[in-house]
Structure prediction request, 559 residues.
Amino acid sequence: MPGSVLTGVGVSPGLAVGPVLRMGEPPGAPADGELLPDAVRDAEAERVSAAMAQVAAELQARAAQAQGDAVAVLEATALMAGDPALEAAAVERVRVHGLPAERAVWDAAGEVAEVLRGLGGYLGERSRDVLDVRDRIVARLRGVASPGVPTSDVPFVLVARDLAPADTATLDLTVVRALVTEEGGPTSHTAILARSLGIPAVVAVPGVTELADGTVVLVDGGAGSLTVDPADADRERAGRRAGARRRSFDGHGTTADGRRVALLANVGDPAGSDAAAAANAEGIGLFRTEFCFLDRQDAPTVEEQAQLYREVLAPMRGKRVVVRTLDAGADKPLPFLPAADEPNPALGVRGLRTSWRSPGLLDDQLRAISLAAQDTGAQVWVMAPMVATRDEAEAFVSRCSAHGLEQAGVMVEVPAAALTAPAILDVAAFASLGTNDLAQYTLAADRMLGDLAALNDPFQPALLRLVEMTATAGVARGRPVGVCGEAAADPALACVLVGLGVTSLSMTPAALGDVAAALAGATTQECQAASRAAVGASSAVEARVAARACLPRLADLGL
Prediction:
């Protein structure tokens, strides 16, 4: 119906208007058929191996042409397509059980995806990737085009049930004006990559895939809405804003009345640090160190770690770099970490808790961070993930001090840490709110489940109250309190967070310009009014609307 509005969760701000084009559907499940005779099983098994190799090569070729976050996503997907374990499982189903190639791949990949889904958390995210790889291999075996983004010479709004990382990472931004999905959540690959690409995006929009191709829609990534057949004036407004989506950042975050707010970047490797420096980030608010430990059978040595950390710290000479110690275990297992069979990995031995079993691993990492800090001139702060109590915070600070790291703080991802923030900030030098995990633990909602995306909306008043409690404790003690979760990249929410007392915001480098513009267009008083309106709301939807009403410049900025 013309003028009707569909709502979801806005994950990347901006306005865009254009005709809908829906994502091509993946191949359906192969039909059950007769088992293959022994004489053809070897040849059929070879078809499986060949198709997997071809898909892996195609994805690797796309990675070679990609840039930024897309490179890592495509390379990881290519590795999955060529996974020897997946190939062996599919080949066994052909040679031993006589299944046709398509059915063998379908069943083998489905089994892997189900195991990952059951683990939840980071590994649960990978289940969608496995199914994407499965669909590509099955399409190759059938001799049909791989599922994915439709081709068009005319700019369009891409609508899909969900997007695989390999699709999102290689979007042609000359024609794709915005992304809208029926599933997914605020921390999905689609959301993260949409922000890094600077393209408007809304996820978790019920019924959006029922729109017919060619239907003209207006996407508002800030408000999380989709207007069907918008009025001419709205189309013109969106068209004017579309050409100015990419904003630069001058390296100095302030509100309209001059209140300083440090705008930092989230990075996970040396390339990310280079991107942060190029975007004029004021520093790094979250340096994820897991890249040093992944794909290894043994833990890296102190010197190996130190050298990798130097590469991340070097571009940030004279600037703050907040290093998060290893966030692994449970749902992100590593071969060299003692593991236990945990029925609920998200509530298991992860983050700082892994040091209870492997204290030497944490001490080696702290020693490596200390060595790198001495050589690079960066202002190195260190924080531990998954801290829940004052005792844990105090023990971590003491261990950091033993390695000469005096700026030691904590991640606030567990509601208990926010509720006891005064006690924790009596011993910790700073706190950084990881809003992704804090939301899922506060709302008891797995952040990777599209059905629960509305609960994981960072505008949830319950989540904002925990942010406020933590920030208030920081102000009372003169301790900095930042936000490094995905919430910091939302321009409207950034203003709310500043109004709650947050002193720094860390995000993907591509979001710095928009967030800086939003803050520069709002006074401290307006930010505080927006925060009061959001915290006092009865729902995330109401909180977003109420906050934006207090920030009149956002609409003018196209945010």
Remarks:
- The mean pLDDT is 89.
- The chain has 22 helices and 16 strands.
